[in-house]
Amino acid sequence: MISLSLNEQEHQLDAPEDMPLLWAIRDLAGYTGTKFGCGMGLCGACTIHVDGQPTRACVTPVSYAVGKQVTTLDHLHHDPVGQVVQQAWLNKAVAQCGYCQGGQIMSATALLKSNPTPDDAQIEAAMAGNICRCGTYNRIKDAIKEAAVSLKESRA
Amino acid sequence: MSRQPDDFIAANFSRRTLLKGMGLTGALVIAASWGLRTAFAEEPKAYGAEAMPDGWVDNPKVYVSVDKDGTLTVVCNRSEMGQGIRTSLAMVVADEMDVDWAMVKVAQAPGDQARYGNQDTDGSRSMRHWFEPMRRCGAAAKAMLVLAAAQQWGVAASECRAESGQVLHPASGRSLAYGAVAEAAGQLPVPARESLVLKTPEQFRYIGKESTRAIDGQDIVTGKARFGFDARFDNMLYAVVARPPVYGGTLKRVDSSAALKVPGVLKVIEIESTPIPSEFQPLGGVAVVASNTWAAMKGREALVLEWNDGANASYDSDTFKQTLLKAAQAPGKVVRDTGDAPGVLAKGGKQVKVDYYLPHLAQAPMEPPVATALFTGGRCEVWAPTQAPQVTRERIATRLDVPFDNVTVNVTLLGGGFGRKSKPDFVVEAAILAKAFPDRHVRVQWTRDDDLRFSYFHTVSVQHLEAALGDDGLPTAWLHRSVSPSITALFGPDSGHQAEFELGLGFVSTPFNVANVRLENPQALAHTRVGWFRSVNNIPHAFAEQCFVAELAAAAGVDQKDYLLRLLGPARQIDPQALSDTWNHGESPERYPVDIGRLRAVVEEAASKANWGKPLPKGRAQGIAAHYSFVTYVAAVLEVEVRDDGSLIIHDAVIAADCGPQINPERIRSQLEGACVMGIGLATTGEISFKGGRVQQDNFHNYEVARMPLAPKSVAVHLIRPAGDLPLGGVGEPGMPPIAPALCNAIFNATGKRIRDLPIRSQLSGWKGSA
């Protein structure tokens, strides 16, 4: 049994230590916001936060997260920055199929927490690891900029 | 992604004749030879939704329900894969019914075409074929609610009207909410079609208007949206499958002893391979079933496998490219012949002669194929992200040998489709495994490796073009040979020739104003599963044609945009049959002629909005391309910068499109933006290649798709609203074809380097032009 602090709840999971967090979070704990896209940390669909850091759940063993706080998209609406990002995503009508967008939102939220006013190049660098096959990148960029402005206004 | 084989039959024979004359399975086999078309030539040809299997349904009792609280639930019969169809069809119904958007919900129809009409979500057809039936559903439902209220009041329905979810009786000032009369309305007969009063465009609240909230938007950003990957059941099982690495291969031997020792692994099950042509049935192999996905994946790694590779073991993309190039140098099956192009070309003079090569591609939707199935009491129920629920149901029934009525196909959201999920092989796998574990849900999970190695690949092709140029620089003769394996090889003996529907995807249907035109289709055999990929054969056809136009412009010393317009010629309407396009996307040639005026207009609009010809620094330039597909007209201007190291920056993309009347303009723009990014991706790095019959790519590090830094710094989409009573065009696919040629034409203008082989990859690395 592995004890995991996931979305502010303690979970006892019957997982081998090398099981990637992705499958522990989904198959064992039952959260669905984290998606499988590549299994090699190449596409970002599985992005979660481990102690606030954007992390690819598909290549991170569950043992790595023991004693740390794991947050998935399912719980992001409890995060003040996450809420603003989610709203910006709706305002800009970013999603097409939507499958990758959870990972995009997790990456964007982490970006805005570490850099509240990213420029285009910084957004591109931070988001380059998140693939969207529908090609919504321009709207993602716009949504991140809108969220940055909203967050700045709320701090003012 | 365009047509299912049975659609193809139905487009040519009436459904009635088909069902009367032969069983569906037999029809499929026969249709694959394409030999029976003339047998029913006396049957009047049907077009549009009418011609699709099971046609359309406009019965509000099937599609519309109103709860006591006034909530309107619209059933969506089409699969949602990002095109926004769940939102857009609901907008149409809600508009005709006059219901506030906050009160609208959408329920997804299971696969049941007898009830819901055609459900094949492909060919950029959903709104084109369902706008009118859904309008009638909404108008009929509204009429029933009004009548129910009028009866309750004892007044004439003509004295009442509907507004924002209420029926009003202005004379008495009375009103009743829809919810209050919904039950009574449901007991009334559906009014006759010809009695319905549809809204006029001025009365529309949602149709053609901006900013209707996407029906699934909130669920998507909060993780509540349910994709195929998210179907969850108590005590469910998880499986992955090891498949024969070569198309047509079979299992020789498996040692599963190590796999069975992996904790969590429950069983190893062989899935029988389907011989070539395997159609939509699974490739077969060995499934590992476990209590979680990770255990199944580890179990599969522990299998010791030997395969019989079969006839395609020598399929090699480098060799096959030479085979295609060779075939392209010799005359092939003539598919259009106007004037005497070979005669003019034989006379010599100024000529341009080139070959273009485009490799296989994989759709690679972000959600890899995945499906969950339950087999219990002789019945099979599945939950799957499928573009073709009826086809899925038929194939499961066939494979499990259970009655069609014992199969239920629940359609989840699709995490991208792009044509991959119109083929239900992965769902059939889940059904087969569920039958081995009765009463338990079994999910089959494809990894990215599986997805890239076992797709139904976009075809590989060589496009050979020749032109003779007259004194004015315009072609006096045009010869185009399109050589590429056909999708039809999935369904029967491989003729090596493109079918009517493939030729109609931007080849014969391309309308240049040249007196002598010869179009040929030399033979090319398929050595893997070739299937639909967003915009299908338009990708190679548009790439070759639109690059060639720019090459001719350069040879003539004329501006690309001016040359393209001159080649299109004056505004006029062309009967597609005069272009030897007997398919015309299944649409009526009278209702959907090829309209050169509309094609010219998108070229001019894109050029104008992009400020075509503006001065730019060295190494930076614009390129243009335009293409007509899925009965929609699209032009693109891309502005690129090629750096000294050969890397590309795509600055601005300007897209102009005319898809006829616009139902959900916001989603139309998003589809065109996305198609632009996908088109850039396939042009720059998209390639699936084979060695020893095996796909050489296995994840996003060696099958690269566009990431944010490669996307244009801006994408502007300009939608043209043409005047007059025009029918709807497609939206999901027609944005793709012009992108790759516009990009390569821009690169040529920036560097003088002409890209003729895709992907571009490192071909620009030698360029030091700006140094």
If you consult CATH, what is the topology of the largest domain in chain B? Aldehyde Oxidoreductase, domain 4
N-end to C-end Cα span of chain A: 46 Å
Beta-strand content of chain A: 5-15%
The main sheet of chain B orders its strands as 9-10-7-17-14-15-16
Task: Determine the mean pLDDT of chain B.
Answer: 93
User: Any idea what the CATH architecture of the largest domain in chain A is?
Assistant: Orthogonal Bundle
Overall, the morphology of chain A is globular
Quaternary structure state of the chains depicted: heterodimer
Features of the shown structure:
heterodimer; A: 156 residues; alpha+beta; 5-stranded mixed beta sheet; 5 helices; 5 strands; 13% strand; B: 771 residues; Aldehyde Oxidoreductase, domain 4; 22 helices; globular; disordered N terminus
What does this structure look like?
- Chain A is α+β, with helices and mostly antiparallel strands and 156 residues long.
- Chain A folds into two domains: 2-75, Ubiquitin-like (UB roll) (Roll), CATH 3.10.20; 79-155, DNA polymerase, domain 1 (Orthogonal Bundle), CATH 1.10.150.120.
- Chain A is 39% helix and 13% strand.
- Chain A has five helices and five strands; from the N terminus they run ββαβββαααα.
- Chain A has a five-stranded mixed sheet with strand order 2-1-5-3-4, with helices on both faces.
- In chain A, α2 (80-91) packs across α3 and α2 (80-91) packs across α5 (137-155).
- Chain A is globular and about 45 Å long.
- The model of chain A has no long low-confidence stretch (mean pLDDT 97).
- Chain B has 771 residues and is α+β, with helices and mostly antiparallel strands.
- Residues 1-41 of chain B have low confidence and may be disordered.
- Helix content of chain B is 30%, strand content 21%.
- Chain B has four domains: 1-46, no CATH class; 52-214, Aldehyde oxidase/xanthine dehydrogenase, molybdopterin binding domain (Aldehyde Oxidoreductase, domain 4, 2-Layer Sandwich); 228-310 and 367-450, Aldehyde Oxidoreductase, domain 4 (2-Layer Sandwich), CATH 3.30.365; 534-751, 2-Layer Sandwich (Aldehyde Oxidoreductase, domain 4), CATH 3.30.365.
- In chain B, a hairpin with a 2-residue loop joins β14 and β15.
- Chains A and B meet through α1, α2, α3, α4 and α5 of A and α9, α11 and α21 of B.
